[in-house]
Each structure stands twice: as structure tokens, then as C-alpha cells.
Amino acid sequence: MIANIPQIRAGIVAVSRDCFPESLSVNRRRAVVEAYEKKYGRESIYECPVCIVESELHMLQALEDVKKAGCNALVVYLGNFGPEIAETMLASNFEGPVMFVAAAEERGDNLIQGRGDAYCGMLNASYNLKLRNVRAYIPEYPVGTAEECADMIHEFLPIARAAVGLKNLKIISFGPRPLNFLACNAPIKQLYNLGVEIEENSELDLFEAFHSHAGDPRIPEVVRDMEEELGEGNKKPEILVRLAQYELTLLDWVECHKGSREYVAIAGKCWPAFQTQFGFVPCYVNSRLTGRGIPVSCEVDIYGALSEFIGTCVSQDAVTLLDINNSVPADLYQEDIAGKFPYEHKETFMGFHCGNTCSKKLAFCEMKHQFIMARSLPEEVTQGTLEGDIAPGNITFYRLQSTADCKLRGYIAQGEVLPASTRSFGAIGIFAIPQMGRFYRHVLIEKNYPHHGAVAFGHFGKALYEVFKYIGVEAEEIGFNQPKEMRYPGENPFGLS
Q1: How far apart (Å, rounded) are the C-alpha atoms in residues 377 and 273?
Q2: Among 7, 15, 352, 355, which is least packed, fewest CB within 10 Å?
Q3: What is the pLDDT of residue 180?
Q4: pLDDT tens, 348-363?
Q5: What is the pTM assigned to this prediction?
Q6: Which residues pair with 452 in a beta bridge?
Q7: Residue 200: left (phi > 0), alpha (psi -120 to 50), or beta?
Q8: b/e 55-80 (16+ beta carbons within 10 angstroms → b)
Q9: What is the pLDDT of residues 68-86, one digit of tens each?
Q10: Are 347 and 432 in contact (CB under 8 A)?
Q11: What is the per-residue pLDDT across 303-344, written as a single tens digit (0 to 9) for each?
Q12: CA distance between the termini of the chain
């Protein structure tokens, strides 16, 4: 289980309008919980037995019960039509993410005493949520059988993890962005709007902390762990002591500085003066922390770190941050991709960064020096990258960003890393995303996104889209790789084939 993300326990509370049989909600709630436990286990769900919520007083009793049970997410279940005031007050007063779901009718021969009308009640619930300015997750089709509602609740958990995580997240940054990296600069006001805390530190503070860890007795143990992870890829053993010292510096800083927050992400400095002063590059350490669920973005990319953290919560797995970097040469495309995979040339590109991707997400890896920096610096101070081709498989490329106008925007695109050799350096892979060429032009360029994108290893677009909506990104501000028949607003209609 990956660390540094919340574990969700969702309390399910059934509601009932007092002119409907209470037993409808009781029995239907019980059936949902039984279906959930049978398929997904008991750890992440709690059935509130105190009462069926019909009134404001019932609402207070149910609220107290789920709080005592340690629930950090809430499922409001309309077993029948439901009391639109009490049920939305329950959502308003619960301090955590909330979803609404409703019961479908079970049998055609039981539509007199056994008809619940929750299909109708969901409309009033949604209207009252809007009246109270309460944000709640409502599935695409929120009315279902016990088994279908159980599946909907399970799909709510990654959304809840991200929402809870953001409210308890601190992003720790070190140093201003490198010169000519204005693309990674963004207004931090939206962090506060999301409930995220930000601690900005000087690169010099980190340098001082690093020196205070010289000779730390824990260093040999960390070095042994690094050696075990790298195996035959340990091509720079002479640098491991300094990297271990830096890793302990960051971990201790996190523990001393997270304060009231439970979860942490780091936006780190890595050049231009980092290598000459620290004597290495931090890429490998960044990859190790990200593998533990503590995302570390490069080049003080604060919204990159935020995006990585969201993906970690959703996927419960390591993520990475890559440059949307370079096109695939035509000869490489013809040799390794054309006719073997269903992608046109413009649907492919290479995602790259110096060496920050977790070793578990690489097809192979070696410790090397940073090739680009070594063009102008002594090679010995550029050691510390974890290089290798990214393992093939499904991916989701995404980012949450506060743009220059302080608007919260995001994009999501699903695709895959192809099993084709990159013939290049760094942590790098050949990515294929349907309609990537159009997405690149009409989302990434048109909407002014920076070159960094977060990568989750698997298809998580559905959950990420709901997370973005839940935290307040307007639907029209969530970009995605649209199919050919769906034209982008700024796309030239005469250029479509």
C-alpha cells in the first residue's frame, strides 16, 4: 500500500420521505452494503444503523454516528424519494466529500407499496444541493440496483481520496524556478481555494539542511537500499552516499515542516546551481520519494507536484512528471510503430525527464549522469539520474493548472506507452494518444499549458475527470483528446479531413 495518501471509509446513510415506507430505505440500504462487502470487502464502507434520515433531527443523529465511526466520506442513499431538506443539510454539514445515489425499483409486481420514486427524488436533491452551494458527486447515471450502487460507491472512493488528500496537503517548494522557466510559474491563489497549504523555501535553506545531515548514521542503511533497488544498474556507486544524505534531508524536512497537514508533496529545485553546489543531481532521490507516494516535481513546478499528488490518490500507485518533449522521428515510426500499432505518426511523441521516474515504472534502469547538463558542466557533478525506457502499458497524461489569468483548468488524455525502444537518454518513453496532434494544438498550446505533464500508470481518465469537477474546475475548462468528429472551438473547420 502506497503511503502519504488518505484511506477512505465511506459512511452510507439512507434517507426517507416520511410519506413513504421507511422499510424501503432500510432494506435497500442493507442490500447495497451486502453487495459492496461481497465484491469489495468491509474496510472502506460503514452502514449507519442509527436512523433513517427523515428530518433535521435525524440528520444530526446520523451525522454524529458517521463521525464517531471515523468516516471521512459520505454516501447519501435515496432508498425512496427522500427528504430534500434534511438530506442536503446532511451533505452540507458533513466535513468531507459526499456522493448521492438512488435506488432503482426492483420488481414489476411490486409497484404499489414497493415503489420508492427515488428516480424523482434525485432531481429534488440535486436542486437543493445547488440552493445550498453544496458540492456533491453524482454519478453519470445515479439510479441503480444494489449491485450497481455498490459499484458506484466503489468508483467514488478515488474521488474521495483526492478530495480528502487536497484538504490535508502541504506543498513544500525549494528555490525560485530556474531562469527561462516562466512556464512553470503560476498564481498560487488557487491552491488556497482548494484547501492546499504551500510552504516556499529558499534553495539556501535546503543547502544548509543538507550539510547538517553530513555523517548521518542512517546513511549506510539508505545506501544499501539504493544498491538493492539499482542492482546491476548501479553504475555510479561513488555518488550514493551523497544521494542518501539528500534523501534523509528531504524526509526530515517533511516531518519537521508538514505541521498540521497529513500529506506532503515537494516542488524541488534541480538546476542550474544545484549540481555545482550539492555535487550531484537529485533525480534518483526524487524518483524514490515519488515511488513512496511523496511526489517530487522538477524545476519548482508547484502545480506539477499538485497534479502528481492527485494522480497518486486516484491510482494508489506511483506517478511521474514528464516533459511533453519531442516528436518521434519518421524513420523510427516507420520501423517500430507503423503497421504494428493503430496510431498515426502525429499521435505519437516522446515523454521525457532527466531521471525522476520510479524504478518500478521503467522497463530497465541505470544510474547515470545528466547528459544535457554535462554539456556545460563537469560530468562528476551531474551524476544522479535514473535512466531507462518507461515500461509499456496504459497511461493517463493529465495536469491541473492555475493559468496566467488565475483560472483553474485541467486536461486529461488516455493512451499508452508503446513497447518500442526510444534510442535516447533519460527516463523516457514513446507515448501514443489517439488524436494527439489535435490535442497538442488545441488544448496544450491553445490553453497555454506548460511543458510538464503528470503521468498515471493506467487508465484513470474517468476518475480524474470527476475529481477535477468535484474540486471546482468548470466542465468546459477540462480539456481532453477529442475524437475526429468532435471539433475543438478554435479548430479550423476547413482543415478537417
Answers
A1: 11
A2: 7
A3: 67
A4: 999 999 889 999 999 9
A5: 0.94
A6: 323
A7: beta
A8: eeebbbebbebbeeeebbbbbbbbbb
A9: 999 999 999 999 988 999 9
A10: yes
A11: 999 999 999 999 999 999 999 999 999 999 999 999 999 999
A12: 47
The x, y and z cell numbers of residue 491, run together, are: 479548430
Our CA dihedral for 41, 42, 46, 47, rounded to 10 degrees, sits at 80
| β pairing state of 393-402 and 408-417 | antiparallel
**Banded pLDDT at 481 (limits 50, 70, 90):** very high
Q: How many residues does the chain have?
A: 497
Residue type (1 letter), 311: G
The residue to which cell 519518421 is assigned: 330
* Cβ neighbours around 145 below 10 Å, total: 16
Cβ neighbours for 182, distance < 8 A, ≥ 6 positions apart: none
Q: Is 392 exposed, middle or buried (0-12, 13-18, 19+ CB in 10 A)?
A: middle
Residue 152 to residue 132: CA distance in whole angstroms: 24
